[in-house]
Amino acid sequence: MKTTDVAIDKVYLLLKGKIDNVYKLRKPTKSSHTNYVVINSLPISSGVLQKCYVNVNYHVKDLISGLADMKTLRTGTDLLMTNLQLYQEKGMIIEFENQQYFSESQLDEHYSNIRLSVKIINT
User: Fold this and answer.
1) d(CA 12, CA 23)
2) Which of left, alpha, beta for 52 (phi over 0: left; psi -120 to 50: alpha)?
3) Alpha helix segments (H runs only) across the chain
4) Structural domains in the chain plus CATH codes
5) Which among 14, 33, 54, 67 is placed 20 to 30 Å from 4, CA to CA?
């Protein structure tokens, strides 16, 4: 059986070196980046075919409190989508599920959530 770490690590490797400021699970407390990516996941199933969803969240500081920087959000989302096209290797498939924007009002940020479906075959 695999854990969510396998799915998160694979998505991280797909983005590493292509996108700046990519973190697993959460942004480090001391980081001052205004644009950054956080990769996390929902629970993984058990069995021969394991499934989980990986969330890739692209955070962008608001232009002013409550006003999203849509130009930067769109550009970053497009770059992520380019690097997160359908991925297949022996025993793993990663494919796009959906995308939407959210407000993170307590941080004066908005983020683009890209949800990926990950399937892992245990042989």
Assistant:
1) 8
2) beta
3) 4-15, 70-83
4) 4-121 (3.30.2000.10)
5) 33
Residue 44 has which token pair? 């993984």
The whole-angstrom separation of Cα 104 and Cα 86 is: 28
CA distance 84 to 17: 13
Q: Look over the chain and give the mean of its residue pLDDT values, rounded to a whole number.
A: 94
Structure tokens at 14: 């797909």
CA dist 11 and 51 (Å) reads 14
pLDDT tens sequence across 53-83: 999 999 999 999 999 999 999 999 999 999 9
Q: Which two tokens stand for residue 122?
A: 């245990």
